[in-house]
Amino acid sequence: MIAAGIVAVLVGLLAPGPALASSPTPPGGDGLIWRADDGGDMLGSFQRNEYNEQDGAPREVSSPSGHGQALEFSLQGGDQRSELLPRVPDGREGDVYYYGYRGRLADDFPVDAQRFQIIMQWHHYGDEGSPPVAIAVQDGRLMITGGDNDRNEAYQQAIAPIRPGDEIDIIVRIVFSRDPEKGTVDVWSGGRRTVTAFHPPDGTLYDDGDYMKVGLYRSEDLSDPASLTLDDVAVGRTRQAVDAAMVDQGASSAQGTPDAGTEESTGSDSSLRTGLAVGTLALIGAVVAVVAVVRRRQRL
């Protein structure tokens, strides 16, 4: 009977089963670096200065999608800049970060404009020239863009078609490097991977680092007004962390990522089960020894 009980215990411990319960963790877990506060003082989540708001300060409004607060950025024709700086680390050589963005274009947003309209950018430390990487609305497309054919080669890479009033729901992965062979950009749009390992012609860094800005930055040549709302923005070291932190996980994707292997399978549950089994074996061994001694004494 004792032997049968021991076998039953071992089978129960070593057989595969559901994951062991873990302590609850906040959305994003340890991989999340920063997320804008959409439930209170959303503007307070960002660094602000007069230069970035020279043509208009963003306003905190109720989210058009019903998710707490949002930020509204508006520019009139001829205006150029209304931007904020997320409180996040700069991108430096070898860094890999994921950036989540969720917003909505106004119903009259001039999506077919022939000039740049940047909604998110990673600008080099130098004051002159266009950024190495930016997300823009131009020619009826949401796109990655950068460079200016003056100091660095200009480029465009389509992400998805876009229309006035559309939601923008993206996660951007950037490998920061001055080496064009190493610097890459990936984009998930609306839960679907639409850009994979794109290499900007002069890399994703033009000098020692890139700092992030969000809002609206557009060509002064544009005469039509433009407005958009920003619902959510988050930054992390993994796509899963950023996705979990975003409003109702709107930018989720079931497709694979370059880091999927390290994120999706840590082996922690099976290791814990194995550890428990080893400890239990030791305990059972001690019990068996005691039983043997007791039986031996009973025979005497």
TrEMBL record:
TM segment ranges: 275-294
Leader peptide range in chain numbering: 1-21
Molecular function GO labels: lyase activity
Superkingdom assignment: Bacteria
Coiled-coil annotated residue ranges, if any: none
Annotated spans, Disordered: 53-88, 247-271
Keywords assigned: Lyase, Membrane, Signal, Transmembrane, Transmembrane helix
Protein name (Swiss-Prot/TrEMBL): Polysaccharide lyase-like protein
Organism (species): Actinomycetospora succinea
